[in-house]
Amino acid sequence: MPAPAHTTPAPQGTAAPEPQAAAPAEAVTPLIRGVAVLRRLTEAGGTLSPSGLERATGLARSTVDRITATLAHMGYVRLEGRDGRDVVLTPRLMELGNAYLSALRLPALLDARADALADELDESVSLAVGDRDGIRFIHQATRRRAMSLSFRIGDLLPAERTAPGPLFATEWTREEWRSWRERRARDPKDTGFPAIPPRRHTDPDDFAERTARAARDGWSLDDQLIEPGLVAVSVPVRDPATGRIACVASVVSHTSRHSADDLRTTLLPRLRETVAAMERDLREPPPPQATPAPSDLATWTAASKQELGREFVESLARGLTVLTAFGEDRPALTLTEAAKATGLARATARRALITYEHLGLVRHSPDTHTFTLTPRVLSLGFPPLSRTSLSRIAQPHLDDLAAEVHESASLAVLTPSAEEIQYTARAATTRIMSVDITVGTRLPAHATALGRALLTSPPDTPGEASAHPYSLVDSELEAGLRAIAVPIRDRAGRTVAAADIATHAARHTPTECVTLLLPPLRETATRIEADLHTASRFTRVPPT
Fold it and tell me: N or C: which end of the chain has fewer CB within 10 A?
């Protein structure tokens, strides 16, 4: 019997989902439902209660609970509060979007050019790809200002309200134009695009005119189409092999700094020069880097099912991880290659890919018999997670550590002078006698375990990412205060922060700090680093 059509209601404040054909008979219904849960969580900013998810998806509460329990076991969400009152997306979920961006290769090949142009012009620069009748950002070089660009990697915008949109529309087929008109009629206020304010009014015919102009001029302008004051100019970056648009580069500003005409006359020439350099980079790209595939997936999911029973939806877990089989050296996969990369049976991989094709997350090429990821994969949690910080990443891990050892745990960074540390995250424990330090507090680096862990692992000196040397301070900052700390390292092995456990001397001897507290502290540092490395693969993760 065919799986039911995917017609779940939209959450309050968003448009109804676009009409979708009934799912193919071989589609995996739990996978369709799991994707719906992840999308609703994304639209809600990354957090919803189980009852909120029940309303947003139209699924039974028992189904929502099984899906969220599976996602939590995979590390894609965490359940917060008493009895799991909130379902929260975690940085590990970004591995799905990372798989798409890695397979696409454009961010890795072009981001340095975009960042350099942003520095030179002191304006925001973005890269976007087309996603059906919209655009989706794949890179942002944002300037920090009171009024600055707030779009995130993965955000979806309607093509007609952007500068890149008319450029992509120059390549639309008649069917794609028809779909665009149907979407405009179905959602006249753009409520289905939560990244932008509702539409005031635009003439549909104006977009066709702007598209014709973009085809003639080779560039496009956005003069406050999204919101008052926001202006942008865009130029297409073409694939040298096909001549088609690979992505669009844009310079985005505010009318307080540049008018739309000013963007065209003063910044467009420099943008065109950068795009020409980007196209040269695409003509002779470096060879793709090999990345490990999730080859032990079948073993892991089987063990998880054995451990959790019916609360673990094995078909959902297997299906989601199929997305991570793609990568820089695996941009397109046949069914056989997808099965080999994941360790799944060919039939299992086939059903997952059929489901994803139905949902618009993969594209099938009949000529080559291969599947590729689409930009829509970024709709699975990437936008809200792409603006995370190290302190947010660390906080739940510090909370777990404090609950395990019944002592306070903290995260700190060095100040620019390297003479002080500043606390950026903290998990306190309830005791009659406890360490009372708040986030934002600064202390002398040389007198703290956190400071010594940072000073002995200088930020500019890469270290062994898997090793965690420690620093122990006994009553040097304050009598009776003992603390043990380890460094936190980024993807390049550079120390960017330190985590510690602080205790009173009456509770743990120095030897006990090393034998009892150091192992869970090191495990916590490893988990923080794992999330940091995933989150920072294609995004910048600030300390706070």
Answer: N
Q: Residue 368's pLDDT is what? A: 93
CA angle 509, 511, 517 (to 5 degrees): 85
Strand partners, 482: 474, 503
Residue type, 528: I
Is the four-CA dihedral 184, 166, 99, 194 of positive or negative sign? negative
Q: Checking phi first, is residue 13 left (phi over 0); if not, alpha (psi -120 to 50) or beta?
A: left
The burial class, CB within 10 Å (0-12 / 13-18 / 19+), for 269 is: exposed
**Number of domains composing the chain:** 3
Number of other CB atoms surrounding residue 345 within 10 Å: 12
Residue that the structure tokens 């520095």 belong to? 119
Range of the domain at 213: 106-283
Q: Is the dihedral of CA 175, 181, 185, 186 positive or negative?
A: positive
318 with 278, same domain: the answer is no
Indicate whether 204 and 168 sit together in one domain: yes
d(CA 37, CA 68): 8
Specify whether the CB–CB gap between 230 and 254 falls below 8 A: yes
Distance CA 188, CA 229 (A): 22
Element holding 286 (H helix, E strand): none
> Residue 88 in contact with residue 46, Cβ under 8 Å?
yes
For residues 371 and 422, state if they share a domain: no
pLDDT attached to residue 10:
41
Full DSSP string of 425-455? EEE----SS-----TT-EEEGGGSHHHHHHH
Provide the residue type at 342 as one letter.
T
Name the amino acid, one letter, at 386.
S
Q: Do residues 420 and 447 share a domain?
A: yes
Domain end position, chosen among 355, 385, 415: 385
Residues in the chain predicted with pLDDT less than 70, given as ranges, are 1-20, 82-84, 144-150, 201-204, 431-436, 460-461, 463-468
DSSP 351-382: HHHHHHHHHTSEEEETTTTEEEE-GGGGGTTH
Q: What is the pLDDT of residues 406-426, one digit of tens each?
A: 999 999 999 999 999 999 999
What's the confidence (pLDDT) of residue 298? 81
- Is the alpha carbon torsion for 318, 323, 328, 334 positive or negative? positive
Contacts of 276 (CB under 8 A, 6+ apart): none
Burial (Cβ within 10 Å: 0-12, 13-18, ≥19) of residue 310:
exposed
Residues 162 and 300 in one domain: no
Q: Check residue 6 and give its pLDDT.
A: 38
* HSE value, Cβ hemisphere, 13 Å, CA-based, for 181: 11
